[in-house]
What does this fold into?
Amino acid sequence: MPKRATYADMSFIQLLFPSAKNTPDTAEIMLLVLVAAVPGITAMAYFFGSGVIINILWLIACALILEVAALKIRKRPVLASLKDYSALVTALLLALALPPALPWWAGLIGIFFAIVVAKQLYGGLGYNPFNPAMVGYAVLLISFPVEMTRWLLPLSDTQGAPGFSTLLMQFLGTSAEMDAYVGATALDQFKLERGSLTVEEYWTSSMLFGVLSGKGWEWINAAFLLGGVYMLYRKIITWHIPVGFLTAIAVLSLLFYDGGSSASHGSPFFHLFGGATMLGAFFIATDPVSGPANNNAKLWYGLLIGSLVYCIRVWGSYPDGVAFAVLLANFAAPAIDHFLRQPRKSQHAR
It folds into this structure.
């Protein structure tokens, strides 16, 4: 079985930049990922308030402390590992997937499983077979489903986001004022509470829906799409996984869309611009460590993840399915790499 790309030996950079003489190092790539996420972070903070920022700062602080502790226990160089900024990216991706008013202890548990269990126990950066952020998310979703499904209602004309002090109190677990701000996401309601209404009837009767998908979520997905295009432009990811991911969702949602009856599963636009679709396609599924190494495999890997996301959303128990789809595809990544490896060019001895 071919060796998969790892951050540790930097072979994934040669895969991304096969003809480049001055390739960016891991730290530069991580910083570019952080920059690319800024539009999405801004959109989430606008629609869901400062709890998004609180989550990000808290998880980053916890990630750095846990990374240092794990490295010291493993007797590994601390400063060199911290300078690659991988812990920051893991914390950011997990924070963006969590409800903005999640209690502090839940975030700590999630980032512990992401940094210590899914990353350091497997040998550190470059050796983890599973996406660390999605491991942390999956643990929280299975263990604390109530806390993980209580998202804030999006910003609307009738209600703004809760203030910083209210969110901070909720973060500390002492606020009794959050019930007016908390509710299901558009994917939650569309899957579980629509009843016998047609798509149009339900869409016009609920404040959770906008033009293309969930109110706020359509703009958040557009912002992460913009960040994804930036990463493609800077060549820190290739197009294969995002295109495969989005194509699978678009094709399946089109095949199973009946025009909007009471049994409809939603239009392609609803799925493409709802939930964590663009965040998953460009920022999560493209992790070079837990995914395939070659471009042929990456395309099929993206198709697999997109197909799993749609199936979980429509027929599974969870309204969104990015985390579980990515983790299941991580299992299959070595086999996909093996069976779809690209033929090597013949080399002539001098």
Observations:
- The chain has a mean pLDDT of 82.
- Residues 51-73 form the longest helix (23 residues).
- The longest strand covers residues 151-152.
- The two ends are 29 Å apart (CA to CA).
